[in-house]
């Protein structure tokens, strides 16, 4: 690969020669500098092509990764991101938290019921089905 300083020097020299070439006396030298510059481009392109080929070989020799197992679908991710839990260990009460209405446009809002009994066990009921039970107050 041609060092960037050499390319820059070529461009500066060519620019200076063009600036003072009033009578065409430097036309041959300018043409030589332009030819040198094209040769630099060719060398750099050749290096990059070789690099690309080496990368392609490395990619081909790399074993393919298996896709990770599906952990949650888009619906569950939206549920996790848009739900706010408000726990009350004192005076166990049932509380209904509505999710953002557009979480699932087909079904509309979904209810999440939080129940805390006197022993401090938290039970979540998600859309009518028990989902989660936790003995101690979780720290989020």
From TrEMBL:
Record-annotated PPE domain positions: 1-61
Stored InterPro entries: PPE_dom (IPR000030), PPE_sf (IPR038332)
Record GO biological process: response to host immune response
Family to which this protein belongs: Belongs to the mycobacterial PPE family.
Name of the featured protein: PPE family protein
Gene: PPE36
């Amino acid at each position: 690969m041609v060092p960037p300083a050499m390319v820059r020097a070529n461009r500066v020299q060519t620019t200076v020669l063009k600036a003072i070439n009033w009578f065409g006396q430097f036309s041959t030298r300018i043409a030589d500098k332009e030819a040198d510059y094209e040769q630099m481009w060719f060398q750099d392109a050749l290096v990059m092509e070789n690099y690309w080929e080496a990368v392609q070989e490395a990619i081909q020799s790399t074993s393919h990764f298996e896709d990770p197992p599906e952990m949650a679908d888009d619906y569950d991710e939206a549920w996790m991101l848009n739900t706010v839990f408000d726990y009350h260990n004192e005076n166990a009460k049932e509380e209904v938290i509505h999710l953002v209405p557009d979480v699932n446009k087909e079904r509309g809002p979904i209810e999440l019921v939080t129940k805390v009994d006197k022993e401090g066990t938290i039970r979540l009921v998600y859309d009518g089905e028990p989902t989660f039970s936790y003995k101690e107050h979780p720290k989020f």
